[in-house]
Specification:
The protein is α+β, with helices and mostly antiparallel strands and about 100 residues long. About 30% of the residues lie in helices and about 15% in strands. A two-stranded antiparallel ribbon has the order 1-2.
Length: about 100
């Protein structure tokens, strides 16, 4: 993972139209590796574009919460990322509460 992210940030020759996309790609890579989710649960596949004004069933900003938590031992704050993966594989058969 470190090699992949190092290449993405230092050696990638791809020109992004908006550099925030590079940050978003990094976030998706980290979330995918940490939670072992399928890429289709995080991003909308090209073949699954939905019309009719229906929102795609993927990870959105409303499913992510960023918090600062105080570490009582070191008297420092830690950044915590909480992700609600509601569109996991088989979520229609076994929905989470």
């Amino acid at each position: 993972m470190a090699i992949l992210l190092n290449h993405l940030w230092k050696w990638d020759r791809l020109q992004y139209t908006n550099e925030t996309l590079r940050v978003q790609v990094t976030l998706v890579i980290l979330i995918s590796m940490a939670t072992t989710t399928r890429p289709a649960a995080l991003l909308e596949p090209v073949y699954a574009k939905q019309g009719h004004g229906e929102l795609p069933k993927v990870l959105r900003y409303e499913h992510v919460r960023l918090s600062l938590v105080r570490d009582s031992e070191r008297m420092r704050q830690k950044l915590v990322l909480e992700i609600n993966l509601i569109f996991h594989k088989g979520y229609e058969r076994n929905p989470r509460p």
